[in-house]
Design goal:
The strands form five sheets. The protein has a seven-stranded mixed beta sheet with strand order 3-4-5-6-7-8-9. β5 and β6 form a beta hairpin. α5 packs antiparallel against α6. The radius of gyration is 17 Å and the shape is globular. The chain starts with a strand and ends with a helix. Helix content is 21%, strand content 25%. The chain is of the alpha+beta class and 258 residues long. It is built from six helices and 18 strands.
Length: 258
């Protein structure tokens, strides 16, 4: 029995003897199936051709896969006095990454913005003794590998439920010395200028988010102070002045789709 990974989105599925015929995550209109058709890879095969890299990204330890695999996001280690949190996830775990996190105080929890980044979340949890994985209950249908460590939380502010990209899309507010940060995945997408953000229902299929959904995101984030926004990919961060950049970006987006 193998927990196969979807080659297109990198999400891991419950153990089966043979690969499944379909990936519901990719068949959803926010993602897409490979032009060559649905395909799968085992964790062993992935490790044979890729490696998990660990490096600093604007002052925060990040984890990503090279060469680029699936959607290409990187995870980040949020270090706090109340315990460390792995924010978002990737499809590989390594002994070196586990050792580095343990050297920095270990891991208390995992939280993931939305289902495109669920990847090998169960493997990461197990590597740290079964730490809880916090996912919003509104996205329960997108859990392809059920696991006892998954906590399907309800409400608005365990993380911050913003909705938008997915109904349960969540972001993480990190209170820290030197300025608070907002970790957003692509619920709030940092643009290449690194001075603005944008919003989409589907990024690859270029379906914009409607005005009501963007206003709900703005309302959800309005009570929180943040100086930085840390996006989903290497080096896509707004460092300094992020709350003003966010507010300006919301106004610009709403004007553009009016």
């Amino acid at each position: 029995m193998t927990c196969f990974l979807c080659l297109q989105c990198g999400v891991q599925f419950a153990a089966t003897e043979t690969p499944l015929q379909h990936c519901p995550v990719c068949e959803d209109e926010r993602q897409f199936v490979r032009w060559e058709g649905q395909a799968w890879i085992t964790p062993r095969e992935l490790a044979a051709g890729h490696r998990l890299v660990t490096r600093d990204d604007a002052g925060v330890l990040g984890f990503g896969i090279e060469p680029r695999f699936a959607i290409g996001q990187r995870a980040q280690l949020v270090q706090t006095t109340h315990g460390n949190v792995l924010w978002d996830c990737v499809s590989m775990v390594s002994e070196e990454a586990v050792a580095e996190i343990n050297r920095r105080g270990g891991l208390a929890a995992i939280a993931i913005s939305h289902c495109h980044f669920y990847s090998a979340m169960a493997c990461w949890s197990e590597a740290f003794g079964g730490v809880p994985i916090y996912l919003h209950a509104d996205d329960r249908q997108w859990i392809m590998r059920p696991h006892p460590s998954i906590v399907s939380w309800q409400g608005q502010t365990l993380a911050i439920r913003c909705g938008g990209h997915f109904s349960g899309s969540q972001v993480l507010h990190w209170q820290r010395e030197g300025g608070n940060a907002l970790l957003t995945g692509d619920t709030v997408q940092v643009t290449p200028t690194r001075r603005h953000v944008s919003f989409m229902y589907s990024y690859p299929n270029q379906i914009p988010l409607n005005a009501a959904a963007v206003r709900r995101i703005a309302t959800a984030l309005e009570p929180f102070d943040f100086n930085d926004i840390r996006g989903a990919w290497w080096d896509l961060n707004i460092i300094g002045g992020a709350k003003a950049a966010f507010n300006a970006s919301v106004a610009r987006y709403l004007a553009a789709i009016a």
